Amino acid sequence: MLAEIVCLISQGLREITSISDLAMSYSKYNKLIVIPYKVRLLGWPEDIPFSYPHKLHAEEIKMLFDSHTSGITHWQRMAAFEHHSSSEAFKIFLNNVDGGVRERWNIP
Fold first, then answer.
1. Per-residue pLDDT at 105
2. Which stretches within 18-79 are classed as H helix?
3. Strand-strand pairing, 74-77 and 39-42
4. Contacts of 68 (CB under 8 A, 6+ apart)
5. For the segment 51-92, what is each residue's pLDDT rounded down to a tens digit?
6. Beta strands in 9-85 (DSSP E)
7. Is pLDDT at 11 greater than 50 in this prediction?
8. Is 71 left (phi over 0), alpha (psi -120 to 50) or beta?
9. SS3 of 39, please?
10. Contact predicate 4/13, CB 8 Å
């Protein structure tokens, strides 16, 4: 089931972006997925940490798999105003963190 949920999430991302070799990033989700591709993964169960499924417990993987296969968890394109809000929120976050983060991510 672990391999299946990893595949479902990755396939969904590739389908919605039309980029066949795009890899999902959990640790840099906003920077590498949401902002550049204007998509987001909705319906991730609130009681499951948003992280690579290999880091989850078996019962969390089962819940995530069930949520995804039922359509609760799914990819969605963002409207322009949602994307702008996410980008602005990310910039505000960056202004409140150590400058090393900006350098590491090559953000002006």
1. 46
2. 29, 35-37, 58-69
3. antiparallel
4. 5, 8, 9, 74
5. 999 999 999 999 999 999 999 999 999 876 554 555 555 555
6. 39-42, 74-77
7. yes
8. left
9. strand
10. no
Place of tokens 């890899």: 23
CATH architecture type of domain 2-79: Alpha-Beta Complex (3.90)
Q: 5 and 65 in contact (C-beta within 8 Å)?
A: yes
Conformational region of residue 59, where left means phi above 0, alpha means psi within -120 to 50, and beta covers everything else: alpha
- Specify the 3-state DSSP secondary structure of 62: helix
Spatial CA neighbour of 55 closest among 80, 15, 33, 26: 26
